Amino acid sequence: GAVVSQHPSWVICKSGTSVKIECRSLDFQATTMFWYRQFPKQSLMLMATSNEGSKATYEQGVEKDKFLINHASLTLSTLTVTSAHPEDSSFYICSARRGGANVLTFGAGSRLTVL
Amino acid sequence: TQLLEQSPQFLSIQEGENLTVYCNSSSVFSSLQWYRQEPGEGPVLLVTVVTGGEVKKLKRLTFQFGDARKDSSLHITAAQTGDTGLYLCAGVRSNQGGKLIFGQGTELSVKP
Fold first, then answer.
1. B66-75 pLDDT per residue, tens
2. Best residue in A10, A26, A31, A44 for a mutation probing chain B (most B CBs within 10 Å)
3. Taking a C-beta distance cutoff of 8 angstroms, is the pair A79, A107 a contact?
4. N or C: which end of chain B has fewer CB within 10 A?
5. Would the CB atoms of B105 and A95 count as touching at under 8 Å?
6. CB-CB: which of B30, B40, B100 is closest to A104?
7. How many CB atoms lie within 10 A of CB A85?
8. A111 to chain B: which residues are within 8 Å by CB?
9. Taking CA atoms, what residue in B is nearest to A40?
């Protein structure tokens, strides 16, 4: 079955630093990947759509200069949280879509804690 | 405003009881999915419904898609402690690039 790997699974950083989270589709090519953010006891909020070879499409209210997304290959998308602050602490989850199917495979998530 | 209204948001029941979770919207979805998520993990797909009026069963779980494809429900029969978790409905709207939009989620706790 389709597998999506996220790395790191958890990260702690100091305020003001930048953190990169990777999302890899291990056994399929993903032309589209999605990045979500989830606060405790809440649902997933779509942040952006990452398309291979083109600029990401950000949801309303998401700062594109704050959350940099790069989708340089068909198996890898990265989310960089720049100049992280404590309010950026959250669970970040990616998902990948195989081909033209509407079924997404989710990664296990990356928990970011900014001190 | 929330595109997908999920209710209830919290549910605590005894083992053996039945329960239903609802997912409602004023928008039409080309498909609707139900996920279950454990703490610290990504959501895991339970089922996808595509056709209006469709009913799918997964052991003790019954999923239904409304005739107008605007709403869905998840019914669990004889809940077990292992059913405890966060249940999420998520919809795909036509011409939205395949974006999956999630409801608020239902935190289910099944007590022994």
1. 999 999 999 9
2. A44
3. no
4. N
5. no
6. B100
7. 11
8. 40
9. B39
pLDDT at A40 over 80: yes
Please work out, in degrees rounded to the nearest 5, the angle formed at the alpha carbon of residue B10 by the alpha carbons of B6 and B12.
135
Give B17-64 pLDDT, tens digit per residue: 999 999 999 989 989 999 999 988 999 999 999 999 999 999 999 999
pLDDT at residue A102 greater than cutoff 90 = no
The candidate with the shortest Cα–Cα distance to A71, out of A48, A93, A44, is: A48
User: Residue A38: what residue type?
Assistant: Q
Q: Which residues of chain A neighbour B103 with C-beta distances below 8 Å?
A: 43
At residue A101, the pLDDT reads 65
Q: Which of B43, B47, B51, B72 has the alpha carbon at shortest distance from B60?
A: B47
Cβ contact B77:B18 at 8 Å: yes
Q: How many CB pairs under 8 A join A and B?
A: 56
Angle at B92 between CA B57 and CA B97, to 5 degrees: 145
CA gyration radius for chain A? 13
